[in-house]
Write a structure and sequence with these properties.
globular, single chain
Length: 217
């Protein structure tokens, strides 16, 4: 819950996302109204991971049955010269409508443990570990078609990437400077993170490998 509140705060910081990535986020009330679906995960038990895999397949199936509206995409054109050779130029462009799928992201401990394996079967497009949440706006903007008005019409550029990943653990990240944004601001209780990671390398525990070294706020 604490990590989800941190992620919500990072994505809803419009000043940062507009200035650095030309993109803004708002929280949808219904999942099929969203362009980006993020699942915060646990890896402490096998049953938890099984539930995540089931949820990802469920989200992808729902996405296929409820596709997003196609966008008019600006695409490079290929010109053929007199000698028959082909050259791609960004100066001349044409538009085409493409089908869009939602960006499905996996966050947290399971993302950190499995890394690229989370891309299996096309269930996920974005993998982000617990110390890389600050990178979410940049990674999502690389996966999303960004608006680019042309000739008075709303067009979009092709996404820079099809999949994105950041699972780098940190020795000092605590998100202490980020004020969490709760899903229900009226709640009278909240989770407060006072420590992240662990230095005790117990043979039965995955925490040091998914949350990194111990550090306090």
């Amino acid at each position: 819950v604490s990590d989800s509140d941190i992620v919500r705060s990072i994505l809803l910081d419009k000043e940062n996302t507009i200035r650095n990535y030309q993109i803004t986020f708002e929280e949808a009330q219904e999942e099929m109204d969203a362009d980006v679906l993020l699942t915060n995960t646990c890896a402490i038990r096998e049953n938890a991971e099984s539930k995540v895999w089931h949820r990802l397949r469920e989200l992808r199936a729902h996405d296929s049955k409820n596709p997003l509206e196609p966008l008019s995409i600006l695409a490079p054109t290929e010109n053929t010269s007199m000698d028959g050779s082909k050259a791609t130029t960004v100066a001349t462009k044409k538009t085409k409508g493409i089908k869009r799928k939602r960006i499905i992201g996996v966050l947290g401990c399971m993302a950190e443990r499995l890394k690229e394996d989370m891309f299996k079967d096309g269930t996920a497009d974005l993998i982000v570990g617990p110390d890389a949440y600050r990178d979410l706006p940049k990674l999502i903007s690389a996966l999303a078609p960004l608006p680019k008005p042309e000739n008075g019409m709303n067009h979009f550029e092709m996404p820079m990437m099809e999949r994105a990943l950041n699972v780098e653990l940190s020795f000092d990240e605590t998100y202490a400077d980020i004020t969490p944004v709760r899903s229900n601001p009226g709640d009278v209780t909240a989770f407060v993170s006072v420590m992240r990671g662990c230095n005790n390398m117990c043979s039965y525990c995955v925490v040091p490998f998914t949350r990194g070294r111990e550090r306090s706020r």
